[in-house]
Inverse folding.
């Protein structure tokens, strides 16, 4: 009896859906669920990754979907005579394994498809009991459009807002219900729920943007808004970019988070538009950092006004 492991990128919707489609197609082809192990691969815990594959013996068929885990893990599994199948669309990740030549290694790489779509197309001819076929195709299209930031489908933003609102825990080790939760997703319901959230967010954003105040940092008066932690997590980019558009240089969003011990942490997110203003210049002044157009820093002064 063959045994299977499906490792997938976590926490990532594309990884989770790819896992679900691969799982369904294995079960459909006659594999018993007890012979399938699901492993969420979290790069933030890369050091302990190999321990999640201790059960893999010679002959185990191991999928890596939307993730390569690490080249070391793959090498260790090949050493144990496992069969490894990598389905990947991240060029950087693929480059780390593309030179490994081994009879038990299959690499599937497509830069223009997300992992879910790759798995979907590979198993298209088998009956998937995930959702009814036409809806599944629609869902896969939306996952693909969002995961690759293609922004070609009009419902993609709503799909993702609706999905985030479900607050699914994709790791089967932490949530034994995840497979049935993914089974129950109704893509049309998800999109209409998402549309309402997107519309609501737009009105929240509009009202927040009515009251920015300038914060002097270096040579810039940076328009800034203070929001709730929840708004900070979901709306920083939208607000920061809008404020950067207003000022022509930077925009800044702040929020006060309460730590587990009750202490407070003030986080700031800086955004810019175009290629002229590097947000890291601002973030570095406070020991933070990030990317050219998006950075963050922690400022634990007692009051926001002290920045002025
Ligand atoms: Mn992906």
């Amino acid at each position: 009896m063959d045994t299977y492991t499906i490792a997938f990128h976590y926490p990532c919707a594309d990884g989770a859906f790819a896992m679900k489609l691969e799982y369904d197609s294995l079960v459909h082809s006659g594999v018993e669920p007890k012979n399938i192990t699901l492993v969420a691969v979290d790069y933030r815990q890369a050091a302990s990754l190999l321990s999640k594959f201790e059960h893999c013996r010679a002959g185990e068929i191991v999928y890596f979907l939307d993730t390569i885990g690490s080249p070391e893990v793959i090498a260790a599994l090949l050493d144990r005579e496992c069969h490894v199948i990598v389905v990947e669309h991240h060029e950087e990740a693929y480059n780390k394994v593309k030179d490994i030549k081994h009879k038990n290694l299959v690499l599937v790489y497509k830069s223009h498809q997300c992992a879910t779509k790759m798995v979907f197309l590979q198993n298209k001819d088998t009956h998937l009991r995930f959702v009814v076929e036409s809806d599944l195709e629609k869902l896969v299209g939306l996952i693909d459009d969002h995961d690759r930031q293609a922004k070609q489908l009009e419902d993609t933003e709503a799909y993702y807002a609706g999905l985030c609102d479900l607050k699914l825990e994709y790791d089967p080790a932490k949530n034994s219900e995840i497979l049935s939760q993914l089974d129950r997703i109704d893509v049309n319901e998800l999109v209409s729920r998402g549309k309402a959230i997107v519309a609501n967010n737009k009105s929240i954003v509009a009202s927040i943007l009515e009251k920015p105040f300038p914060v002097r940092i270096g040579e810039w008066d940076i328009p800034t808004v203070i929001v709730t932690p929840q708004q900070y997590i979901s709306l920083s980019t939208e607000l920061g970019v809008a404020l950067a558009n207003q000022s022509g240089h930077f925009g800044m969003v702040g929020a006060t988070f309460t730590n587990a011990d009750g202490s407070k942490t003030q986080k700031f997110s800086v955004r810019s538009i175009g290629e002229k203003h590097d947000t890291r210049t601002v973030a570095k002044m406070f020991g933070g950092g990030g990317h050219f157009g998006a950075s963050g820093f922690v400022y634990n002064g007692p009051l926001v006004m002290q920045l002025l």
